Amino acid sequence: MALIVQKFGGSSVSDAEKIKHVAARILQTQAQGNDVCVVVSAMGDTTDDLVDLADSVSSKRDSREMDMLLTAGERISMSVLAMAIQEQGGKAKSFTGYQAGISTDSDHGSARIWKIEPVRIREALKAGEVAIVAGFQGFSFETGDVTTLGRGGSDTTAVALASALNADVCEIYSDVDGVYTADPRIVPRARKLAQIDIESMLELSSSGAKILYIRAVEFARRHGVPLRVRSTFSADSGTLVYTTKPGDEMEEPVVSGVTTDDTQSKITIIGLPDIPGKAAEVFQIVAEAGVNIDMIVQNSSSQDTQLSDISITLPHSERPKVVEALRSKQAEVGFEGVSYDDEIGKLSIVGAGMKTSSGVSAKLFGALARAGINIEMISTSEIRVSVITRASQLKDATRAVHTAFELDAADTAIIYAGTGR
Ligand code: ADP
Ligand code: ASP
Ligand code: MG
């Protein structure tokens, strides 16, 4: 008898028919002799709709009230799912993040889990019930207020609960058969991976593959939680995300996947004096704005002027406040100006085998050159190479690179549900 945590994403519970299907699937797992703890997301695009609703009455998005609002989405799906299970003859009970004992810090909209004491979940499981927990929510141990864990955070709830309950496996159910070599909505011939090492999965998630939320992967790595990504709508065994390599001696693939990210902007600080301390002043301003930057590139200064340019990339949503902060300190720091560009796209290739293999960058840049795509910035880690291109060319670039690394499958990937929003 195993304890299984199953998480169903918004696309898996987007209407009554799908919720009934999920209920049947859960009962099947239970009938095979397992204890089942379920984590659900809000139905379909409910969370986005709630954000739009807030925007229609307020320009501020008060963070405490936003969390109160957004957590309502998961309360709907968890209770409806519990009733669907009961209707099919099973026993089920739903729990909010608070009732499941998930306490967090007070960082509304992006709270971090502090502790999980799933007393009521254990009780429900002991009583033979399916315990259904609302994803993506907790409560602040400091203020008692309701918090959310960041968009896509139901994955984190599932992994954290699996760890707290010492579950045998955490299964993430979505609208595709597993983790693919690229987003199948962009690359139709993306190939499903039977397994992937957790380090590569972390890089895929952090560079734009939204199939798994980065914080969930981080949590799984830190606590050794076995993860499997599967489809709600097929019997496919999905993708195993492993911390310790299972059995076989196969080498890691050089490139496991290609990701895209069109949510970034570029800011360039123009004409910065090329003397010690100036870059530090610039990054101090960015840090004070509370922004996490992704890439940094400095152009070498020209001999006559001794001035250089620094470009950074960061999330779209943070761009206005950073530009404003930099402009307010322009005279003080002594640079010539600030420009920005919201039309950039980031493409990354990720693979654990890159560490020990040469020619990867040459192949990447060759493929982009043949497709007529200009590279504007480059950054690398041990197992990732990322480039900035025009946003309008990002999809073509992804398909060209996917083909160049021989990742194309014979058949088209199936997308069972969801809107991709
Ligand atoms: P859910 O509703 O289950 O939370 P999400 O929309 O958050 O689903 O994530 C699933 C989607 O992630 C897929 O439909 C797919 O378009 C997208 N995706 C992006 N990159 C990948 C990838 N490498 N492998 C699989 N899916 C991916
Ligand atoms: N419903 C939340 C969101 O849309 C959390 C999740 O689905 O993981 O971001
Ligand atoms: Mg998701």
Task: Characterise this structure.
Helices cover 33% and strands 25% of the residues. The protein has twelve helices and 20 strands. The chain has helices spanning 16-31, 46-57, 63-87, 119-126, 154-164, 198-206, 214-223, 278-288, 319-328, 330-333, 360-370, 394-404; strands at 3-8, 35-40, 92-95, 102-104, 113-116, 130-134, 137-140, 146-148, 169-174, 195-197, 227-231, 239-242, 257-261, 264-273, 296-298, 307-315, 337-341, 344-350, 377-381, 384-390. The strands form four sheets. The protein has an eight-stranded mixed beta sheet with strand order 3-6-2-1-9-11-12-10, sandwiched between helices. It binds adenosine-5'-diphosphate (ADP), aspartic acid and magnesium ion (MG). Adenosine-5'-diphosphate (ADP) is lined by residues 9-12, 41, 152, 174-176, 179-180, 182-185, 209-211, 257, 415, 418, 420.
What topology emerges from the helices and strands here?
Layout: E1 3-8, H1 16-31, E2 35-40, H2 46-57, H3 63-87, E3 92-95, E4 102-104, E5 113-116, H4 119-126, E6 130-134, E7 137-140, E8 146-148, H5 154-164, E9 169-174, E10 195-197, H6 198-206, H7 214-223, E11 227-231, E12 239-242, E13 257-261, E14 264-273, H8 278-288, E15 296-298, E16 307-315, H9 319-328, H10 330-333, E17 337-341, E18 344-350, H11 360-370, E19 377-381, E20 384-390, H12 394-404
Parallel strand pairs: 1-2, 1-9, 2-6, 3-6, 4-7, 9-11, 10-12
Antiparallel strand pairs: 4-5, 7-8, 11-12, 13-18, 14-16, 14-17, 15-16, 18-20, 19-20
Helix pairs in contact: 1-3, 2-3, 5-7, 6-7, 11-12
This protein binds adenosine-5'-diphosphate, aspartic acid and magnesium ion.
